[in-house]
Design a protein that fits this description.
Layout (H helix, E strand, L loop, with lengths): L1 E10 L4 E9 L2 E6 L9 E4 L4 E4 L1 E7 L3 E2 L2 E2 L7 H5 L2 E9 L6 H13 L6 E7 L5 H13 L3 E5 L11 H14 L2 E5 L3 H13 L7 H5 L2 H18 L3 E3 L5 H12 L4 E6 H5 L27 H10 L4 E3 L2 E2 L30 H10 L6 H15 L16 E11 L18 E11 L2 E5 L2 E2 L17 H7 L1
Parallel strand pairs: 1-4, 1-5, 6-9, 6-16, 9-10, 10-11, 11-12, 12-13, 13-14, 14-15
Antiparallel strand pairs: 1-2, 2-3, 5-17, 7-8, 17-18, 18-19, 19-20
The protein binds N-(aminocarbonyl)-beta-alanine and zinc ion (3 copies).
One zinc ion binds next to loops.
Organism: Anaerotignum lactatifermentans
Keywords: Hydrolase, Metal-binding
Cofactor: Zn(2+)
Length: 470
């Protein structure tokens, strides 16, 4: 199968140029002006459009269960496709008593194979650090899963991890090129403040932010960085939200430590005031870490530009509002009973374009970096994240002139609300290709269930070398 994308303005992390792209089967075979149409099966006219690599969302939750309630799964993974994301990396919790790979395999067989509509990888969340589980860590790299995550937050939940687990994971992981990732919030402080607020009758959704202030995140970020320094291993801080945590990352980076961090679209766009809405609407925005005051947003954009943060992820959690978010509603309930997380996977790329590129906060080159190239590098996805010969033909043809409104009416996320409801959208993916196959055409999802394949990552990605040299 040969496809030719003609006359698009190709965006890379370095530059932009008008050119054609020839795709042969799953790969980009040639890039150049006036490529021959001979033997080509399909021509896509990209005149007036931008062409960039399919987004890589390195932080999604299609299997997360919070207080017994599960998010929407891979059956809704046409949503990232429609939003210009062609690869997602899912956090799979290790099942208590089971192995790391066993837990991934079980989820993959039952809930991913034959269902996924975009390519995918997995970050295992180590929840049960028995000695034989620690010994298993290097096997993750062989299987193509070069990351391992620990939750420093959520004290009292089975997935909460203490420092001993982090030290062991860092030390063992380093042997095999596994990058350890942490959700950095001090679980004990959050637990203390949550109990205190509830005892004072402060149970409304706004108090979610009060229960986990920036200091919780800064302290845990700093601790994780020092644990990594001790182990001489890289560390990856997921969903960074605040100036105080950025200060820790920047300082470590400037000391020459291998530290990476991502932020998420909602921390760039919303502030904590949205938690304080009538009719329990604030629950829609309960995620952890919590949304911050507005003054944290500019430093996050700056950090993306300077490379102190590598990516904008979604931290997508498909909990619905009517039933699941309402677990925290009513007599005897509080913000602490609301499932954490918000749906965001479909709007991530469009939000970064509209509120980043169009507002002059990111260049188009930085945009490509934070939505695709850098996540590919950090996760060792060496065949994805770039428009270049030999790479997977995961490609977005983007119409910059489209004007619309984001919201649940256009969402494939399978839930009853959108945190982006009513917000302006500038531009949209018009055509999306997944390894050469058209999965979005005229801004409609046209792919098939099960088209997504496992994208195996290489140990440490290439980011490890980059940071070691810095
Ligand atoms: O609130 C969030 N982010 N929920 C999902 C789990 C996590 O902490 O990443
Ligand atoms: Zn603890
Ligand atoms: Zn988290
Ligand atoms: Zn998350």
């Amino acid at each position: 199968m040969k496809t030719l994308i003609k006359n698009g303005m190709i965006l890379t992390t370095e530059n932009e140029f008008k050119s054609d792209i020839l795709i042969v089967d799953e790969k980009i075979a040639a890039i150049g002006k006036n490529l021959s149409e001979e033997g080509v099966d399909k021509i896509i006219d990209a005149e007036g459009k931008y062409v960039f690599p399919g987004g890589i969302d390195q932080h999604v939750h299609y299997s997360f269960v919070y207080q017994g309630s599960k998010v929407r799964g891979f059956e809704t993974s046409n949503a990232p496709a429609l939003g210009g994301t062609t690869t997602v990396i899912e956090f799979v919790n290790q099942v208590q008593g089971k192995g790391l790979l066993e837990s991934i395999d079980e989820f993959k067989t039952k809930d991913v194979d034959g269902i996924a509509m975009v390519d995918y990888g997995f970050h295992i969340v180590m929840t049960d650090p028995r000695p034989e589980v620690i010994e298993e860590i290097p096997k993750l790299a062989e299987a193509g899963y070069p990351t391992l995550k620990l939750f420093m937050a959520y004290k009292g939940q089975f997935f909460h991890a203490d420092d001993d687990a982090i030290i062991q994971a860092l030390t063992k992981g380093k042997e095999a090129g596994i990058t350890v990732m942490v959700h950095a919030e001090n679980g004990d402080i959050v637990d203390f403040l949550t109990k205190k607020l509830i005892a004072e009758g402060k149970t409304g959704t706004y108090y979610h932010a009060v229960s986990r202030p920036p200091v919780c995140e800064a302290e845990a970020t700093r601790r994780a960085i020092y644990l990594a320094e001790m182990a001489d291993a890289p560390i990856y801080i997921v969903h960074v939200t605040c100036k105080e945590a950025l200060d820790e990352i920047r300082a470590a980076y400037q000391r020459g430590q291998s530290v990476y961090g991502e932020t998420c679209a909602h921390y760039l766009l919303f502030d904590e005031s949205v938690l304080d809405q009538p009719n329990f609407e604030g629950a829609k925005y309960i995620c952890s870490p919590a949304l911050r005051t507005k003054d944290h947003q500019e430093p996050l954009w700056e950090a993306l530009n300077k490379g102190w943060l590598n990516a904008v992820s979604s931290d997508h959690c498909g909990f619905d509002f009517a039933v699941q978010k309402h677990m925290g509603f009513g007599e005897g309930k509080s913000f602490a009973d609301v499932p954490n997380g918000a749906p965001s996977v479909q709007n991530r790329v469009n939000a970064v374009w509209t509120y980043g590129v169009c507002e002059g906060k990111l260049s188009r080159q930085e945009f490509v970096n934070v939505i695709a190239a850098s996540p590919a590098r950090v996760n060792g996805l060496t065949e994805k994240g770039h428009i270049a010969v030999g790479y997977d033909a995961d490609i977005v043809v983007f119409d910059p002139d489209y004007r619309g409104v984001m919201g649940v009416a256009n969402s494939l996320e399978g839930v009853d609300y959108s945190i982006y409801e009513g917000m302006e959208q500038k531009g949209r993916p018009e055509t999306v290709l997944l390894r050469g196959q058209v999965i979005v055409e005229n801004a409609e999802y046209v792919g098939k269930k099960g088209q997504g394949k496992l994208a195996k990552g290489k140990p440490f990605g290439s980011a490890y070398d980059k940071f070691k040299k810095a």
